[in-house]
Amino acid sequence: MTSPSTPATWLGGLDGCRLARVLEARRDAACPPEPLSVGELADRLQRPGSVALALPRLALPHFQVAEALAALGAPAPRDALAELLGAADEDTARELDAVLEALADHALVWPDGGGRLHMAGPLRQAWDAPLGLDAPLEELLTGTTSDELREMLAALGVKPPSGKAQQLAALVDHHSDPERIRSAVAEAPAATRKLLEDRAGAGTDGPALLIGFGSVGPDPEPDARWALERGFLIQDRYGPTRMPAEVTLALRGPGWHAPFQPVPPSAGWTPVGPREVDHEASAAASAFAAGAASVLSACSTTPPARLKSGGIGARELARLGKAAQADDAVVRLTLETAYAAGLLARDGDQVAPTEAYDAWAEREPPEQFAVLLQAWWNLSLTPTQARDEDGRALPALAGAPPCGGCAQARHGLLAAAARFPAGHGVRVTADLGPLIVWHRPLADSSPDGPPFAAVIREAELLGVIARGALSAIGIHLRTGDTEVLDVECRRLLPPATATARIGADLTAVVTGPPSTRLTSLLSSVADRETSGTASVWRFTAGSVRRALDAGRSPEDITADLAAVATGPLPQPLTYLIADTARGHGHVRLAPAACVLHGDEPALLAELAAHRGLAELGLRRLAPTVLISRSPLDTTLATLRAEGYAPVAETGEGTVRIERTRPRRATAPVPAPRGPRARRGRIAVASTARESAAFDPGTLAARLLAAPPTTPEPAPFDGGEPYATDTEEIVASSAKLLPYTDVRQLAHAIDAGRAITVEYVAASGNRTVRTLSSLTLDPPFLEAWCHLRDAERVFALARIHGVMPA
Asked: Are residues 337 and 480 in the same domain?
């Protein structure tokens, strides 16, 4: 039986359940078109891009074991790995086996029949010097002459053999004994001994202190000469001296072990019940939903202006916060999540709501909250991080480069919280920082305050973390079950309130989140003072006049308010509406640059004599007619500023309704285009069907039953034809792509899916780009390039790799 030393043979020897676990952990390798054989699956799993997608999901002990295995040089015996990690006792050995099992589930490390462990090639390349170790002696001696080897052996007191290969073997054998190395170094000059011990990192406590010791600059003479003569240091012909891995490990001593922390750091626990967590999560989520609705409503009324350098600056953020009665963190979080969800878009020098916002605004608060929550889960930045490392304020929606570590910090927070002891939460949320580091070592930390303070604060604002524990919202957000998440949002967030308690003090109080219709009504006739668990609007003469200016009659205002009031309208409010309406429109402005006329000669005379209106240049033409040298809008604003209540007329003499349609931005990325026929081009008919829900068990059984390898089609040599015309067209131009990549690219074209490609431009620059809206135009591919945010044309011959988007 063939030893499973290659990933293909190892995968082919797994049972269906185990292979299904690999497919579940590495879903990108099973994306449509599904692999046709175990060999094709192994090829996808070993791609650098696929391995890079798997690494961020690994915990600290997984990285530690993988780094130790990389330092040993895979394949390596499992016992050697255990010895290096200090996994001598039964408990630690059991934990090491669990970590190896998890790495095998990710197809990153796998065992063979001889008790050795193999590693995915791209994973080994994750470290330049694993555990601070340089290459083994034999590798460093490549290119060394026979005379140099003979001199090293003689200096060590070893009789040199005759041949170069035998000399190299003798030197490697000598350095394979740590005791011989330590004994020899003990006789070295004091300065040389100290140099070697410092380079080896002897006496250090952690691997971070060892990284890079193999690449220090040239050593001072004569301290290094003794070590160079004996092969304890090797002079690189093009760089500094290097220390072989065998020498480094020997000098660190038999008591040194690679770091291995299989158990997460401890935290201060406090008992907390599900009801307490639900209560706090409900309050936080409800408050954020109300604040987000207010922020986006303020954006709809007056879209925030963008800075010349991009993004929304501190002044506009403060304006939005004041208008929505929300603090800076809520404003930033709302803007970023709404933009990611397509509710906001850049529109020239502003950021305006899109048409999708109007549909979102009509939904219930739990549904609105769920949209923003899921957008937060996938954000590639930390929105509430308000300052950079130098303390300078950061604009919102600045289009910063994606931060993969930010998303990993968020995912690590929920992964850590999901493993809390039942019925407990952390006493101090700062304890969550070390837990995030353990669960997601590749996560980025906020530069200000405690580690990951911004991520933790966002989770608390959204009710994902409540009372130091993971809420029901957080549980289902992490699992990705959107249907159950929607149910939990509806359970924890109260429905919108459609009524208001209107008091004699001219206020309207709404307990809980107000409905969109109620918010629109009250905001049109009153000024909002507070928002949150209870929102308050105040009626004033100016706010009522604003409603009258919008074309509403006092009878309509009274009827609409009575329809939403919990009781009869108080007399002070009805009097306020009547009094404001009584003086509204007594003065009318006609556009002629402009004419003022009314029914009361005394009022017109008062306007003509008013000193505060002198700048308008009013002149009396008749007892009831004035003319102004200023434009209509300027005259209208000046009269209102002086306390009058004029209305404007159209050219036909009717009252002008002052109602403006909210500005709406277009979506930032055009909708995907379907393949279309063009003159001189090939129209590709989309025949791909939407794949059913991914079932790793079914796919595993099919792969194990199929031949171990997928034959490469060779239609031009009389071989098997390609599965589709698109595959044949792509293969004829993209000659550097293997068949599995041809299949993936052709499927993306046929199914209208996005795809990620490795592209080499004519200049030689190599980039990785995500493409959508694919149109085949042999030998080119037209697509929307998400790296450039524009349509681009790509030569198929310059595509060197393909993977799912």
From this structure: yes
